[in-house]
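Appendix B.2, paired examples.
Example (i):
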Amino acid sequence: MLQSRAREQRIMFASRAREHRIMLECRAREHRIVSALSGSSVPVAPTHGLCEDADVNEAPFYLMGFVSGVVLHDQRPAQKMREVERRSFGLHAIEVLSDLHLIDPDDVGLGQLGRKEAYIERQLKRWTKQWEATKTHEIPEMDESLRLLHQDLPAQVGAAIVHGDYRPGNMIVADGRMAALLDWELCTLGDPLADVGYMLNNWPSVGEPGAENAPTAVEGFPERDEIQERYEAATGRSLERINYYRAFSHWRLGAITQGVYKRYLVGAMGKQEFDLAAYKEGISVRARSALKLLKG
């Protein structure tokens, strides 16, 4: 009995140590990225220091300055903006993304943030494992999309700082401009067009099916075509294959959603209110969207 309890304690302490290490690495990494971009044309919240001592706050953390504004999680804050502010914010959002992708990672001390080459290949490998490990039911569109993503993989042209979650819900907006870009946990180096594809998927137009609560589905925001034109003009990068990157983004989120769905299905997420049927259908919706873009 005593040996069993001692073993359980060792496992518990080892688990806590691992969680602390991972959290420390994530916090330190994000602090490093945000600090490196401070002073650039990419708006970020000012950082005031990283604390690695878990005794202070039970976990590593860093302090950042307050940035005034609103976050466009849904349509409510967007509806309170004037139409001219919606347009100016949308144009500034693609300007900021262009500026981010034009920064040489080595110039700001982020050259070792991650591997620069084969970004999509690495992402496909990672999320294919997730999809196969958490698969609970057959979704032919997910499998067919994956086959086509491998078959028609475009060559990566250059590398840049990739935000990884570039959408209105991660932006503080003030006076019709982005005041700060948030949530850098997924940031790495790689193919910048992955950011563009993800942004476009999160930038639906007025009246687009399934986008009833999306902030950009309010009158006044620039359309996807204009956003793409502005990005190409600013960066010199062709978006001829952007539908591939949009499809990849949908497929990747489908794989991520499947993982969350399985955790809820087996009770690993505790007792929470959760519409399993709707979440399950959301995976198929992502898969169908990916396949449509790949075959379009």
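Example (ii):
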Amino acid sequence: MIYLSVNWLAVALAAAVAWAFGAAWYMVLARPWLAAIGKTPEDIDRADYRPYIWSIVCVLVMAYFVAMLTPLIAGSTTLTNGLLVGAHLWLGFSITGMVLNHRYEGRSWTLTLINGGYLLAVLLIEGAIIGLFG
């Protein structure tokens, strides 16, 4: 397996679009998300840029793995296969890990749905873009 043989343009574009989607997702769902984590808008340090850097790094890593795993799992990199791999990665790892941790942490189902829905959309967006690039 050659780890660097992915379409880096597709990975970068997928990560950028996924990150932009995340910004919109959490702007729309800011109030229920804040309530689910038990914070108010005043509790959020808007000057702290580190969460934004981490989110860029994370969506980039996720896009890379979607690009690397799609041809290995599905046989070829197509739109349909990218979407299927993204959905399977979400179901197999993202949402199951989140549900497991949230239940032990006593987090609300609202938080699980908001964050889990975000991750599903990110993986589908990334899978679609990477699939379109082939």
